[in-house]
Amino acid sequence: MEYYNIMIIKFLENPFIVLFVLLLSLNYSYFLIPKFPKGIPRILALSPIFYILYFFPWCFSFAFLRGILSFFITWITSFKLILFCFNKGPLSLCKNPIDFILISIFPLKISKYEIFNEKSVRNTFNKPIYDVKIVDREYEISEENSIRKISDELISDLKIPRDVSRKYEIFDINIFKRYEVEEIFKQPYLATSFRDFWGKRWNRYSSKMLRLTIYDPTNEALKNLSFLGKNTSNLLAIVSTFVVSAIMHELMFYYITCGLCLKSTCEVMWFFVLQGICISCEKFFHAKNWVIMDARISILLKRIFIVFSFYFLLVLPVVREGKNTCEVTK
């Protein structure tokens, strides 16, 4: 088995072949997977694609690049495809293969502004038009008169009733704002708790994928167990999410260190398991209204704990075991 794995990696060392295989895999996922019943049948049909995504980072020599690709391709793309198997997640909103490929690979999402596609406009106004961006809140900018002029011209050209135009405030045709970049970090140094740090500020992109793929379904499944209360189900779902996050981060460091990280003491995995336990304890104390120390001291100690645990359990293993080039890719 190892011989075949090495042969596959050697074959995929050509970057053009790698790109072609990735695009072919995503097109297969977009066009053929929806023909299968949602759920397990789709996951089984995607198993060859997951295998390809697992090998993808090994096709590149530099450790930093392997780490980046293992995050965006091996981890996040795989999770997006799993959600797609259940008609959930960002890929379920894609209406064409270009959307599907871009959102699969990059931290992008369909714009939050509602977009009128040709079909919906035909049904509403009985006339096909280009994609129109609609605002669902007041749009306040200095060029309000220009925006109103564009809106009036658009309404006139499309023969849209004025009452409808006022309701939606149609003002701009702009297909270039079809996508929004996913926010990854949001001032993590201002975190006031473990939940605030991991849930709202640090790597929000992976947190979102973990919530959709692991936390939400686990929490829903545990809630259906009568002997578990709501709080217990929530705490177990949190711990489960961090265990999966630990495994995926361990896999990332496996790529970066050429497989040496998993032969050590699994510091990376224990770091995330420890963070999950801390969040569960914090949530439990909050539910009981237990206050042990002053809030300012508590925030300071939590920040110090995160920094020190990050350094000793994440940074040091990479510094100790990291390799820029693996033997198999030489």
Report a brief summary of the structure.
By secondary structure, the protein is mostly helical.
Written account of the structure:
- There is one protein chain.
- With about 325 residues, the protein is mainly alpha-helical.
- Helices cover about 65% and strands about 5% of the residues.
- The protein contains 13 helices and 5 strands.
- It has helices at about 1-10, 15-30, 40-55, 65-85, 95-105, 120-125, 145-160, 160-170, 195-200, 205-225, 230-255, 265-290, 295-320; strands spanning about 110, 115, 130-135, 170, 180.
- The strands form 2 sheets. Strands 2-3-4 form a 3-stranded antiparallel beta sheet. It has a two-stranded antiparallel sheet with strand order 1-5.
Task: Provide the fold topology.
Layout: H1 2-11, H2 15-31, H3 40-55, H4 63-84, H5 97-105, E1 108-110, E2 115-116, H6 118-125, E3 132-134, H7 144-158, H8 162-168, E4 170-172, E5 179-181, H9 194-201, H10 204-223, H11 230-256, H12 267-288, H13 295-321
Helix pairs in contact: 2-3, 2-5, 3-4, 4-10, 4-11, 10-11, 11-12, 12-13
Overall mean pLDDT: 77
The count of DSSP E runs of length 2 or more, i.e. the number of strands, is: 5
User: What class, by secondary structure content?
Assistant: mainly alpha
Succession of helices and strands: HHHHHEEHEHHEEHHHHH
Strand content: under 5%
Gyration radius over CA: 24 Å
Shape: globular
List keywords for this structure.
single chain, 330 residues, mainly alpha, three-stranded antiparallel β-sheet, two-stranded antiparallel sheet, 5 strands, 63% helix, globular
